[in-house]
Specification:
Elements: H1 3-10, E1 15-16, E2 19-28, E3 31-38, E4 43-49, E5 53-54, H2 58-72, E6 84-89, E7 94-102, H3 121-140, E8 153-157, E9 160-163, H4 168-174, H5 200-216, H6 226-235, H7 241-244, H8 250-259, H9 271-283, E10 364-369, E11 376-380, E12 386-391, E13 397-402, E14 406-411, H10 413-417, E15 430-433, E16 442-443, E17 450-451
Antiparallel strand pairs: 1-2, 2-3, 3-4, 4-7, 5-7, 6-7, 8-9, 10-11, 12-13, 13-14, 14-15, 16-17
Helix pairs in contact: 2-4, 3-5, 3-9, 8-9
Length: about 450
């Protein structure tokens, strides 16, 4: 049960702005979805609520309004329209951002996909073309979706698809200042996206994963945890589709594998080109495969998604308050102990300097070994080699510090305790920066707090 749902129930909230809440009809990583009634226009609508915010969090609210404006400019027959956005003030002193959308009663493509079942080809191509058109249109507007997946493809009926949640993945990415990994769904996430780089062909890759799933009945990569799945996307080649569906033509397989290329610049630049060529190869099996246009041939699409962030010049920042060096809450990052690959958490680092200004450190986690029986991770983020490493008494957390004043806390316990965490369940890391000072780390006897005296 989500914290938003519990809060609304506890505070007896029965409306969001002018919209009357009827019941919750969905829940996902981005938030809850509610069936609501619009008394002004006398119609049912779907409202997605995001995470609760403090009223003082003006930074997030500005980004929310910014993304809402961008999303409202999208006008395409296969992109779900945004009717309205708002922020509900709660008695708890918190704000609840929400997005109002048309109510789509036929569910999503996800509900029509069955493991082991190949989707009827004619129906698959019809829906995939619609999704591809929406993706290419958004890219023309210089907007990257970041979370293309079947559950974001809503069905008006059997023949008509809407791509939803534009802007939400971008908004969640801005909510993690300095993040190097990105928001997305591991089963459909392009290799570079889990490493913090997002381009138009990241969306193409996700669409190719859906094609693979529809025509083979299987996902190309399925690890035991979200992190294991992302490692497979980065390191492994997908099983040839023809091994799972022997009826697939050779040209179809080659085109699909181009869409699943590890290198973003090798993938097709246009989603419509990918689907059109796949359909042609499927319909005319003897057709010769010649490759599709890449970003090199279409440089206008070779852009990185720009994220609105609130940052200030470093020279304006005051020295940190010494009281900020003592804390007990575990802000953690994904970590692997004992050679066991446990799970995934979105990596983020926060400065304790005023206003939580990102330090722009290359914080990341990458595989240290790819052997199935001995998987491990290498954690990076220090600009200088760590010269201090301290384990908590119960080995649940590792604290590292380097001579340039960077400190990271890596929490292992949260990861190993819940290896089957949901994709949106965050693990965090925190970094502190103390310049031109010598540091000594000390843990409390129970390991719940740690202290940093500076000299």
């Amino acid at each position: 049960m989500s914290s938003t749902y519990v809060t609304l129930q506890r505070l007896n909230v029965n409306s969001l702005g002018r919209y009357n809440i009827i019941r919750r009809i969905g829940r996902g990583g981005a938030g809850d979805v509610w069936l609501c009634w619009d008394p002004r226009l006398e119609r049912e609508v779907a409202i997605k609520t995001l995470s609760l915010r403090h009223q003082q969090d003006q930074s997030f609210l500005r980004r929310f309004e910014h993304e809402a404006r961008i999303t409202s400019t999208l006008s395409h027959p296969h992109i779900l329209q945004v009717h309205d956005t708002g922020k509900q003030s709660l008695a708890s002193g918190e704000l609840l951002p929400y997005i109002v959308m048309p109510l789509i009663k036929e569910g999503s493509l996800q509900e029509r996909l069955t493991t082991g079942r190949v989707y009827p080809a004619a129906e698959a191509f019809r829906l995939l073309k619609q999704a591809a058109q929406a993706i290419d249109y958004a890219h023309e507007q210089r907007i990257i979706h970041r979370d293309i997946k079947p559950s974001n493809m809503l069905m008006r009926d059997e023949r008509w698809l809407f791509l939803s949640d534009f802007g939400i993945a971008r908004l969640l990415a801005t909510d993690k200042p300095g993040t190097v990994s990105d928001v997305g769904t591991p089963a459909y996430m392009a290799p570079e996206q889990s490493q913090g780089r997002v381009s138009t062909t990241s969306d193409i890759y996700s669409l190719a994963v859906i094609v693979y799933q529809m025509f083979t009945g299987q996902l190309p990569f399925e690890g035991s945890t979200a992190l294991a799945t992302m490692v497979q996307h980065i390191l492994k080649e997908p099983p040839p589709p023809s091994q799972l569906n022997a009826t697939l033509p050779v040209a179809f397989e080659r085109i699909l594998l181009q869409g699943l290329a590890k290198d973003p610049e090798v993938r097709p630049a246009l989603a419509v080109d990918l689907i059109d060529q796949l359909e042609a190869a499927y319909t005319y099996p003897e057709r010769r495969y010649e490759g599709l246009r890449t970003l090199k041939a279409m440089p206008s699409l070779a852009f990185q998604d720009r994220i609105l962030r609130d940052e200030e010049p470093r020279h304006k920042l005051a020295r940190p308050d010494r009281r900020q060096v003592l804390f007990g809450a575990a802000l953690t990052s994904a970590f692997v102990a004992g050679g066991v690959l446990g799970g995934w958490g979105w990596l983020r680092h926060l400065s304790t300097l005023p206003r939580q200004v990102p330090l722009q450190l290359p914080l990341s986690a990458r595989p240290g070994s790819t052997e199935p029986t001995n998987l491990s991770l290498v954690l990076t983020g220090h600009n200088f080699a760590p010269d201090t490493m301290l384990w908590s008494p119960d080995s649940s957390a590792l604290i590292t510090a380097s001579s340039n004043g960077q400190i990271f806390r890596w929490d292992i316990a949260s990861l190993l305790r819940s290896p089957a965490r949901s994709d949106a369940s965050p693990l965090y890391s925190q970094s502190l920066l103390f310049q031109n000072r010598s540091m000594i780390l000390a843990l409390s006897p129970m390991g719940r707090n740690w202290l940093l005296p500076t000299i």
